[in-house]
Amino acid sequence: MPILVALACAVLAASQAGSPVPGQDGGLTAFVGAHLIPVEGAEIERGVLLVQDGRIVALGAVGKLAVPAGAEVVELSGRTLMPGLVCTHSHVGEPWGADRSSPIQPEARALDGMDVRAPSVARARAGGLTTLNCMPGSGHLISGQTVYIKLRAGDTIEELAYRNPDGSLMGGLKMANGTNPQGEPPFPGTRAKSAALVRQRFVAAQEYRDKLARGAGGPDKLPPRDLALEALVEVLEGKRVVHHHTHRHDDILTVLRLSQEFGFRVVLHHVSEAWKVADEIAAARAGVSAILVDAPGGKQEATEISFETPRILCAAGVRVALHTDDYITDSRLFLRMAGLSVRGGLSRELALQGVTLAGAELLDLDQRVGSLAPGKDADFIVLDGDPLSVYTHVLQTWVEGRKVFDLDDPEDRLLAVGGPGAGDERPFTDCCAGVR
Amino acid sequence: MRALHVLLTGLSLVSCLQAPRAAEAPAAELQAVPGRIAVRAGVLHTMAGPAIQDGVVLIDGGRIVAVGLASEIAVPDGWPVREAAVVTPGLVDARSSVGLAGWLNIPHDQDEVDRSESIQPELRAIDAYNAREPLVEYLRSFGVTTVHTGHAPEALIAGQTMVVKLKGDTVEDGVLVGEAMVAAALGAPAQRDTNPGTRSKSAAMLRAALIGAQDYTQRRSNPGEGEPPARDLRQEVLGRVLNGQTPLLVYAQRANDIMTALRLRAEFPGLRLVLDGACEAPLVLDEIRAAGVPVICHPTMQRASAETRSLSMDTPRVLLEAGIATALQSGYESYVPRTRVVLFEAAIAARHGLAFEQALGLVTIDAARILGVDQRVGSLEVGKDGDLALYDGDPFEYVTHCVGTVIEGTLVSELVR
């Protein structure tokens, strides 16, 4: 992987020279002169961002925040610097998750199917993405466990995945309703059947949870381990967020109904018709991860999709993040989604939060990422213009104080723009052929 | 209300740039004469010369009767007037399946390919195009006024294409060229389990079909002593491909498929070839240029897959720099989104190194030339159709809105999109 080779060379060169890698190894690095968009707090026309040990130490205006003596200075005058982008719904790395044997497979883990060396993952870095929710599926009621990853330089899912306090890899649960999971038996044929199958499974998980509680006194009293129900118990206990594909207004309400019956935390994804039920979504305090695509349709449920959805939902008080659904839209143009949201009437501030902080909140990662703030991970991108302009390019992507993408590097440029040698691809038909 | 606000903002911006001239009555109140309208622009991109600051276009009887500086061209009294910050020619989408491919994407509205046979050039686009398809209205609201649409690149020869204005309720209302091209495909989209199952078989079948049509044409015109062959619609269309009357549009993404298309053209000298897609064209630029073949380039935001793994967002720039006649397409989409919008695709071309008017040319005058309709559309010149797109800013910016679309002097969309 060219990025890694370049980084390895950089590390080697730095250690030979006896100087610290920027932002790493205890050294203090100052990124000076860029227009800072912290996302939380006002934009800073010419700013200083101080980074140490992969974290943000401080930020402020040039002249107000001093660059400490001995700090390595990275000059960024004329550039724009903002947090690394957070995509709440991606299929990069192609983590298929569940197979076609049944519609409910919570035991299937995206982390076991992720190829973190896939060109799609590298292209996400080129788009300025630093945190992703990688989703299995689709085409099931429950397609499996999602995995939250940080696009640091690494070759294994273990190196990239976020971790829970117990060390396990962090993620949610991918669910879907509407026409997407429908099919020949054992897949459901109607919406009511879909809901009944899901309810029956969550009832089983409640009973399993109760057996686990009763058997807590000794191993001989515990029920046999059930990987599927274990994952659903995590959902019932709020440890695992449900990421729910849903389009039609009544399907959205069905998700909210199930969420309330079983008390699970849910983020509504895609939501073509959410603008019809904005108040209901707000009342349920469900988060939304929205997508905007270039034309309506392709399937009946998406005929009323609108660029105005983020504006309408935010006005109703819903927290709205945006997502690529890569392969549906290209990670390299994720900022375009924020631009199209503004085209639909959303404020600049909320649009930029939609590709950063709002996503971090919906993934329970906002204490670490999503904005430029002291103590947060030094995940940021360097742009050559305003983030909402079509003419702006991502020049660099930094994760935890380390540069993982540089448009000036010919290999990285090939990923960013495309061309012969840009990478082998797996046909999209592996994923969603015939799925509506 | 928001739409109205944006429109008013756009208007006030323009009025800062120029002195008021004609009566500012809303167009709706002045629909006295169909096909008559004056459109004033803060910036007018005619695509027939440099952009005009503070320009005006007068359209009467559906045709442009004057275009130039607002300070030099008076708007006649009583004409309806529209204003916008930026005005361009109506956009020309050089390759689509919209109208045959509908937004529901179910059998009810999937007419872009019939899979019963591999070679069916007799299938006419005009017999399948649905002028009331919602995607047609959708494209129109972004300033698209002319579309080269028809059978999708989903079979060896899927059928015909046509050029249509996005106006009216019937195909007859809008059609410019009924039989524009015959749509062929090479590579994976052409292949079946059998007939053809490989690239070699695809080429062999195409050659055999064309040779068969040569023979048919000769025996029809000069039967000699025997009976002339019975009329055969398929052979007739291929005959028009062979004599260059109807170009052959060949979808070819990989370099080897592009070369196969060029080989066909060399074998049948009368054949007019147009390349469709051509994502690996940068690997065979010299060959394409030497053959003088135009390229209707893949959408800049097309997704990479097995056949298109070399896709690049800067292919249009590379083609233009090589001196190859190039237009941009929305292409064929089988899922979500069901269509692309050439305005958005050209924007990404502009993002990747093309000057503004070069990128705009890909979806206006250059597209019109490749389609052979540049006498009617693609630029703003006296005598050409009064087709315009109105924007409240740089048309390529994500945050800009299309605020109006005019086809032949009639305002066909007032949505703020």
Provide a short characterization of the protein structure.
Chain A has 436 residues and is of the alpha/beta class.
What does this structure look like?
The complex is a heterodimer of chains A (436) and B (417). Chain A has 436 residues and is an alpha/beta fold. Chain A folds into two domains: 1-83 and 371-417, Urease, subunit C, domain 1; 85-369, Metal-dependent hydrolases (TIM Barrel), CATH 3.20.20. In chain A, 29% of the residues lie in helices and 19% in strands. Helices cover 26% and strands 22% of the residues of chain B. Chain B has eleven helices and 16 strands. By secondary structure, chain B is α/β, with parallel strands linked by helices. In chain B, strands 5, 6, 7, 8, 9, 10, 11, 12 and 13 form a nine-stranded mixed sheet that branches.
- Distance between the terminal alpha carbons of chain A, to the nearest Å? 35 Å
| CATH homologous superfamily identity of the largest domain in chain A | Metal-dependent hydrolases
- Major sheet size, sense and barrel closure of chain A: 6 strands, mixed
Broad structural category of chain B: alpha/beta
- The number of distinct structural domains of chain B comes to 2
Mean pLDDT of chain A: 92
- Rg of chain B, rounded, reads 22 Å
State which percent range the strand residues of chain A make up. 15-25%
CATH topology name of the largest domain in chain B: TIM Barrel
Number of strands of chain A: 18
- Could you give the order of the helices and strands of chain B? HEEEEEHEEHEEHHEHEHEHEHHHEEE
| Helix coverage percent of chain B | 25-40%
Main sheet strand line-up of chain A: 9-11-12-13-14-15
**Number of self-contained structural domains of chain A:** 2
CATH architecture of the largest domain in chain B: Alpha-Beta Barrel
User: Based on DSSP secondary structure assignment, what is the total number of beta strands of chain B?
Assistant: 16
| Share of helix of chain A, binned | 25-40%
Give Rg of chain A in angstroms: 22 Å
Spatial separation of the terminal alpha carbons of chain B: 14 Å
Largest sheet of chain B: 9 strands, mixed
Regions of chain B with pLDDT < 50 over 5+ consecutive residues? 1-25
